[in-house]
Specification:
This protein has three domains: 84 residues, Phosphorylase Kinase, domain 1 (2-Layer Sandwich); 181 residues, Transferase(Phosphotransferase), domain 1, CATH 1.10.510; 139 residues, Nuclear Transport Factor 2, Chain: A, CATH 3.10.450. It is built from 13 helices and twelve strands.
């Protein structure tokens, strides 16, 4: 089932509603679990044209292995079922945009916001690697933003080995810009390739564009990845050395996913990101050598000189790098010290609501692109303000989630709000949808005012004005009042 024909009732249990995504391996459908009464996402995972029976069986095994992976930043796999002899994967439905679409609509994240996003995804991938699972298709389109946290999808669906990206007919089935250099030349996709792909995803989040722009066709892009370094980032700040290592063509330089996780956590918390894997950690220009820059952080390395002069040049460069790193570290405590634009490191705010409608609040949209402040959930500060972008994104994400996934919305409430789950469920079970408008954020007080338009089941819409209060708890934005 790879066309737009509605497959109906899948596995005698999952009733399809509408298509919600499309990829190289078919359509993802929103469906209703008729047994548990919840929304799920379903996707065909085998029996494609040109695929052997052995490959389909392998897809089934990998999907079942992915179902055993339990991590808050992974789209949960609920079931593997059959429909007319074809295997289908049943997954958690995440009501929210992909990282790819969010960045396109809202713009890039700040370095610390992107680092926090990357750290959460690295935690998920590190857990997968410990379980012996390699994702093989990490990219912005596979990162879903909803329920206050980023979630990585499509575990267990990508294939292993050289046929992952290139079919027998020469058709590239993956996203070329997110294939590691070793995969681009036909080698197996191992854990190091996941590190590379995550680095490319973080690059996209902070820069708003791919590390390797499309060359017009997939094979040309793959040749560029295999032969050339990525283009130097312009907005990455303290993320740049980490990205340079993660996007290195030398797989050993990338380090493990756990090492990438620790460095990203450090930057998200305002640190320096730890020692780079190589002294030559700055990204070279992707094309012809750029003219020398005068600022030490932007100066590309020149050609090495022979003899003692070359050794002295290394020593001097090392001392300059240490000095610049020390200054950067000393200044990193304040917002924007990494060269990012304004206020993404704020921390405590609130929004008080004026009615007992059961509306609950949200954990920081740490993955919201323009509100990189919301993405700085790992920030070590505890007394900053929540920015307007954070508050706006939080409220919008919360109300886009609460009518489709009450469990996820409930988790976004502060503990003091989680006192009447039955009343919360009763209220929201009678609401088909809710939209937000006229939203304003008072950064000084932390109050968020918003007009809500409810669409109750079987009744006319209702419009109400509310004020909510948001507070950052353990680095996460929650609704407290």
């Amino acid at each position: 089932m790879t066309d737009d024909t509605t497959p109906g009732l899948i596995g005698d249990r999952y009733e399809t509603v509408r298509p919600i995504g499309r990829g190289g391996m078919g359509i993802v459908w929103l469906a209703r679990d008729t047994v548990l009464g919840r929304q799920v996402a379903v996707k065909q995972i085998g029996d494609f044209p040109g695929e052997s029976e052995g490959e389909t069986r392998r897809a089934m095994r990998e999907a079942r292995a992915a179902a055993a992976l339990n991590h808050p930043n992974v789209v949960a796999v609920y079931d593997v079922t059959e429909h007319e002899g074809t295997p289908w994967l049943v997954m958690e439905y995440v009501a929210g945009p992909t990282l790819a679409s969010a960045i396109r609509e809202r713009g890039p994240m700040t370095p610390r916001g992107a680092a926090d996003l990357g750290a959460q995804l690295a935690g998920a991938l590190a857990a997968a690697h410990r379980a012996g699972i390699v994702h093989r298709d990490v990219k912005p389109a596979n990162v879903l933003i909803g329920g206050g946290r980023p979630k990585l999808g499509d575990f267990g669906i990508a294939r292993s080995g050289p046929d992952d990206q290139l079919t027998q007919t020469g058709l590239v089935t993956g996203t070329p810009s997110y294939m590691a250099p070793e995969v681009a030349v036909g080698d197996d996709h191992g854990e190091a390739a996941d590190v590379w792909a995550l680095g490319a995803t973080i690059y996209f989040a902070v820069e708003g564009k791919d590390a390797y722009p499309s060359q017009g066709n997939a094979l040309a892009t793959l040749r560029t990845i295999a032969a050339d370094p990525p283009r130097r980032p312009e907005r990455a700040g303290q993320l740049e050395p980490v990205l340079a290592d993660m996007l290195s063509r030398d797989a050993s330089r990338r380090g493990s996913m756990t090492q990438a996780l620790r460095r990203l956590e450090s930057i998200a918390a305002g640190g320096s990101g730890g020692a780079p894997a190589s002294a030559t950690h700055r990204m070279p220009a992707a094309s012809a050598p750029a003219p020398a820059q005068h600022h030490p952080r932007q100066h590309p390395q020149g050609s090495p000189r022979r003899g003692r002069g070359w050794l002295w040049a290394i020593l001097v460069a090392g001392l300059v790098a240490l000095l610049v790193a020390g200054i950067a570290f000393a200044m990193s405590g304040g917002p924007g010290s990494d060269g990012s634009s304004g206020g993404a490191t704020s921390d405590r705010t609130s929004a008080s609501r004026t009615s007992a409608d059961g509306t609950s609040a949200n954990r920081t949209t740490t993955t919201s692109p323009t509100s990189s402040a919301s993405s700085t959930a790992a920030s070590s500060t505890s007394d900053g303000l929540i920015t307007e972008a954070e508050g706006r994104t939080f409220i919008e994400d919360y109300f886009s989630t609460v009518t489709s996934d009450r469990d996820a919305a409930w988790e976004m409430l502060a503990p003091e709000r989680q006192t009447n789950r039955s009343g919360y469920d009763r209220f929201w079970s009678g609401i088909d949808s809710v939209t937000t408008s006229d939203l304003s954020v008072d950064e000084a007080s932390g109050e968020v005012a918003v007009t809500l338009t409810y669409q109750p089941e079987g009744r006319g819409e209702s419009v109400e004005d509310h004020t909510y209060k948001l507070t950052r708890i353990d680095g996460q934005i929650r609704m407290t009042k």
